[in-house]
């Protein structure tokens, strides 16, 4: 019997996010126990409004925008809030679109690290992540650009399993719980919630939802 397919929509900032999500799609669809196949409608598009305008839909649709908070520098702060503004605008197009926030603070590399090791260290600059990627994946990248080369990044993906994804979700939750315990304020801007402090992230939420809906996470694991 053919399995039904559940579709999820994403807009992402760069190639590493796209490569990771395609790997996740293929991995889920290769697991015999899954309830559904998944299809990720992915587009590299920094502007959520452009992404929303380019979709032809008839029913209520959720789009997840995966992007980086980068830093507390004024230029990055401006870019972050402008992106949230565009996400809100996209919801007002009359297309029944709801945009969800899949942020990483500082960067998507935080999510990649959490697949292999615990990490709750505030960093001074996003460039420092490659040191922890080297530790987590037993690599010797010289910098983030080296790690982001397609052959290097896809070599990392080959080291991952669905159990690593589940561990990343748990570790991400621990980070967010720790932020709350430490008294950090959960910001709320136009309905989008995030911590200004690093590390923090919300991309794990949609991935947890996907695994749950496919029957690969139980209620007890949520």
What layout of secondary structure does this protein have?
Layout: E1 5-12, H1 15-29, E2 37-44, H2 48-53, E3 61-68, H3 74-91, E4 97-105, H4 109-114, H5 129-137, H6 144-148, H7 150-157, H8 162-181, E5 186-189, E6 192-195, E7 200-201, H9 203-213
Parallel strand pairs: 1-2, 1-3, 3-4
Antiparallel strand pairs: 4-7, 5-6
Helix pairs in contact: 1-7, 8-9
Q: How would you sum up this structure in a few lines?
A:
Helix content is 44%, strand content 19%. The chain has 222 residues and is α/β, with parallel strands linked by helices. The mean pLDDT is 93.
Strand content: 15-25%
* Average pLDDT, all residues: 93
Q: Ranges with pLDDT <50 over ≥5 residues? A: none
Order of helices and strands: EHEHEHEHHHHHEEEH
Q: What spatial order of strands do you see in the largest sheet?
A: 2-1-3-4-7
Spatial extent as radius of gyration: 17 Å
Q: What helical percentage do the residues reach? A: 40-55%
């Amino acid at each position: 019997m053919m399995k039904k397919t559940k579709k999820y929509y994403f807009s992402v900032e760069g190639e590493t996010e796209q490569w990771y999500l395609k790997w996740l799609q293929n991995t889920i669809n290769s697991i015999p126990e899954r309830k559904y196949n998944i299809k990720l409608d992915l587009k590299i598009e920094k502007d959520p409004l452009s992404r929303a305008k380019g979709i032809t839909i008839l029913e209520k649709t959720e789009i997840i925008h995966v992007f980086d908070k980068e830093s507390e520098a004024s230029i990055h702060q401006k870019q972050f809030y402008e992106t949230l503004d565009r996400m809100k605008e996209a919801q007002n197009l009359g297309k029944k679109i709801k945009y969800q926030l899949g942020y990483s603070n500082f960067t998507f590399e935080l999510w990649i690290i959490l697949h292999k090791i615990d990490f709750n260290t505030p960093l001074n600059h996003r460039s420092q992540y490659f040191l922890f990627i080297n530790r987590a994946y037993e690599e010797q990248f010289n910098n983030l650009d080296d790690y982001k080369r397609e052959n290097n990044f896809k070599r990392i993906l080959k080291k991952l399993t669905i159990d690593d994804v589940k561990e990343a979700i748990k570790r991400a939750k621990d980070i967010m719980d720790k932020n709350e315990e430490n008294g950090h304020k959960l910001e709320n801007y136009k309905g989008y919630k995030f911590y200004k402090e690093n590390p923090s992230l919300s991309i794990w939420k949609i991935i947890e939802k996907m695994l749950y809906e496919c029957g690969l996470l139980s209620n007890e694991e949520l």
